[in-house]
Amino acid sequence: MTLGFIGTGVISEAIVTGLLKAKYPAETIYLSARSREISARLAMLSEKVRVCETNDEIVAKADVVFLAVRPQHAKDVLEPLSFRSGQVVVSLIATVSIDDLNGWTHPEANVCRAIPLPSVSELNGVTAVFPPLRVATDIFDYLGQAVAANSLREFDAYAVASAMMGFYFGVAETAAQWLSQQGARYEASQVYLAKMFQALTETAIQRPDQSFEDLRLGHTTPGGLNAQLHETFSGQGGTDALVLAFEAVAERIRNNH
Fold it and tell me: Of 132, 93, 104, 130, which is closest to residue 11 (Cα–Cα)?
């Protein structure tokens, strides 16, 4: 199995770093020279990694080609290349449809889309894949866990959920700043919150039989502090605002289709 990456940015670097760390059985990993700094850094990690001067070389040599270029440049980059019938193409390009990708690569290429998160570099990523091609889900299982989306609507919903990363850190920053205003050092507040959220995440992972609502109730004493904070947040429109944000992002994704 040989892999190729057209576009070598942050996510490509995370995937390649994770694959090397996981000892994924790829014979060779071909990278585009752009970004040259990142591709050179990855080439130093393993003899398996080779930097190609042209994207044509990557397409010619790779069994599985990952696409990691900007949406506005995708057509111009991909159409001149000679993709093969049956070649597996994994698109990391947000909002570009399967139909467009087949039109720009090859009508009979096996194309799927994926939403890897930066944590794949540490082998604890979760990656939505649609349609769930076996070779693609196997690769992302090496990097944590692949989640098979069986419809475009489901895949788009995962894309909306992945947009919560900035929201999560924004909420944590609000809490850290509030703690600082109460006299806590910002550094100590950051550690406290990160460890608390980590413990809560581990609890959810270890108890897959319980819903998030079950876990919330299990961590809440009626009339207690946890209950008060949740009820105040919800009562002030916090949960409604989050759903509104989900719908706004989902509409943007649908419009891009």
Answer: 93
Find the angle CA(170)-CA(173)-CA(177) to the nearest 5 degrees.
145
- Answer for the pair 36, 137: CB distance below 8 angstroms, yes or no: no
Cβ contact 117:126 at 8 Å: yes
Last residue of a domain, one of 100, 125, 149: 149
CA distance 80 to 253: 27
Total structural domains within the chain:
2
- The burial class, CB within 10 Å (0-12 / 13-18 / 19+), for 19 is buried
Sheet containing 125-130: order of strands: 49-52, 28-32, 2-6, 64-67, 88-91, 110-115, 125-130, 144-148
Each residue of 63-75: pLDDT tens digit?
999 999 999 999 9
Work out the burial of residue 199: count CB atoms within 10 Å of its CB; fewer than 13 is exposed, 13-18 middle, 19 or more buried. Answer: exposed
Distances (CA, A) of 199 to 36, 195, 196: 39, 6, 5
Task: Give mean pLDDT, residues 218-231.
Answer: 96
Query: The whole model's pTM is what?
Result: 0.89
Structure token digits, residue 230: 């949740």
Question: Is residue 50 within 8 Å of residue 39, measured between CB atoms?
Answer: no
Q: pLDDT digit string (tens) for 42-65?
A: 999 999 999 999 999 999 999 999
Domain that holds residue 240: 164-256
